[in-house]
Design goal:
This protein is 82% helix and 0% strand. The chain folds into two domains: 218 residues, no CATH class; 264 residues, no CATH class. The protein is built from 20 helices and no strands.
Amino acid sequence: MGILIKQSISSTIFIYAGAVIGFVNTTILYPKFLTESQIGALNLIVTYAIILGMVGVGGFTRAITKFFPYYRNSGEKHKGFLFLIISVGILGFLLLSAIFLPVQNWLSERYVVKSHDFAQYIYLILPLTFVHIFWNLFDTYNTMLYRTIYGISLKEFWLRLIFTIGLVLLILNVIDFDGYVKVYFVGFIIVLIALIMHLIYFGDFNILPKFSEYKTTYLREMVSWSAYGLVTGLSGFAALKIDTIMINDYLGDAATGVYVTVFNFTTLILMPNRGMSRIASTIISDAFKVKDFQKVEDMYKRSCLTQAVIALLIFLGLVVNIDNIFRILPQSYQIGYWVIVIIGFANVMRMIAGVSENIIALSKYYRYQTYFILFYLLTIVITNLMLIPIYGINGAAMASAFSILIYFFIRYIFLYMKFGYQPYTFKYLGITIITILVFFALRLIPYLGNLVLDILVRSLITTCLFLVPLYYFKISSDINTLIDNTLQFFQSKFKG
């Protein structure tokens, strides 16, 4: 479990640092130095590339996560597994090219009037798709080698830093928007090359095949895993976007803009899971290979508890500062007040589920994960249809929260019935009581008159009031270890 916590913490640091850079870029610099059409064109190009990249991979990243432990052997160059990875990537890209190239000119002509900037750069979609395909494949491969931090740092931090450098050049009139698009595109290429060089450096970029190792049984299973993985991935992506699409359809651009903006604040709760989930998949896959179900259960229990503590602390930070958030945003965004509360609570539930999704997806019951997420998507659509016309963007938030709760309980019941796993104890009641007490205590503090000072003071008091009793009562051994290591670090620096 040590490697999980260590790499999760390091990954989360890069993720949050990247989030800060992304916030500055998209919220402050983009609106000031790019037109709405240019911003839309950039987002649309990348969105197309991401979706096509997922299709091009064909869900094979799921097969890598499941089957690479059977090939992992550095002395034997991982039995030629990278050859399979590259072959899938090339085949996927060629098939997409055969489909996309004939319609590229039609797309350009279709968008040339209503979205000239997007039409001008449609030609970048296919090469950017190529980059995304091989990034997805190589990053998953690198993660399975227990080096998840490097991939996260490249994508979450360094790539955004390249975008910022391009923006600075644009602001200084060194380049125009066309030049910035090229910097934007080259940034993706740079991080892909950096990842490949990383694999070469550690001797893991061995592209020669070993046909004797490609067992027919494994290959057949890989096809099945990939097919279900593709459906799961696309459904999950759709589930993330469907509420925004339906709000735009019912309520228009303005309401969509408010919803997306305030929704982004709640994603802070989920960020620690992105690092933990990646490394957890590697550990869980290895454990299933040797049928170490006790290790899987231990991973499940500790991830639920650790993520519960982290999620509730971040959620507390949001709700005690919610008035400050709306002091930053324009008055028109006030209608998004309850969106933060409702979606924030839902995201806490997603975090409390721990790595349940990973366990199901990597077990012999992997097909059920696809069924569950399709049901989750259907639930979101139905509840949005019911609630948006009545409650507006708050209805969309309630629909998402309800769907997430149903999805949470389905996975919990499934793991209990199939594996007998039950991670939740009275410790969660203790964490809940502490959370409620801290919230009401912070509500008693009046506004301090200065926005930055008020945020800092509230956040600091919240952190102390929340963590001190958790540490004293030893609710989570992982959190206690983290606090001890942090204190020892600062003590050593102070003494030095």
